């Protein structure tokens, strides 16, 4: 979750114990979990509203598709695919060579 590895998670837990204190840590953890749940719910709601407001044809739109870097990569990849010559399944044989 959030790209945090086990070592980093343990480090954050130790820092939380030091700054918050062991007696207030359960309440702090509960509040942090509620906050993260609200943020996740807000992000999901915003994504759903964006898809709804864009209308038909955008049902499969992902938030990462709106990233300019990703958009340019997809457009360039599509343009490069169009430039490639289409090869047929059967090779053409020149009768003069036989």
Descriptive terms for the model:
single chain, 0% strand, elongated, mainly alpha, 3 helices, 98 residues
How would you describe this structure to a colleague?
- The protein has 98 residues and is mainly α.
- The chain has one domain (6-82).
- It contains 3 helices and no strands.
- The protein has helices spanning 6-20, 25-54, 68-83.
- The longest helix is centred in the middle third of the chain and has 30 residues, at 25-54.
- It is elongated.
- The model has no long low-confidence stretch (mean pLDDT 80).
Q: Number of folding domains?
A: 1
The helix tally amounts to 3
Distance between the amino and carboxyl termini: 64 Å
Characterize the main sheet: none
Quote the average pLDDT: 80
- The helix/strand class is mainly alpha
Strand/helix succession: HHH
Kindly state the number of beta strands: 0
Radius of gyration: 26 Å
Organism: Candidatus Planktophila limnetica
Protein name: Sec-independent protein translocase protein TatB
Subcellular location: Membrane
Membrane topology: Single-pass membrane protein
């Amino acid at each position: 979750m959030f790209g945090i590895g086990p070592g980093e998670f343990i480090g954050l837990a130790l820092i939380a114990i030091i700054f918050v204190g062991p007696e207030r840590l359960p309440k702090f953890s509960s509040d942090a979990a509620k906050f993260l749940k609200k943020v996740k719910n807000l992000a999901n709601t915003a994504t759903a509203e964006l898809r709804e407001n864009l209308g038909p044809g955008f049902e499969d739109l992902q938030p990462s598709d709106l990233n300019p870097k990703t958009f340019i990569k997809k457009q360039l990849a599509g343009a490069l695919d169009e430039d490639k010559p289409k090869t047929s399944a059967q090779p053409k044989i020149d009768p003069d060579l036989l």
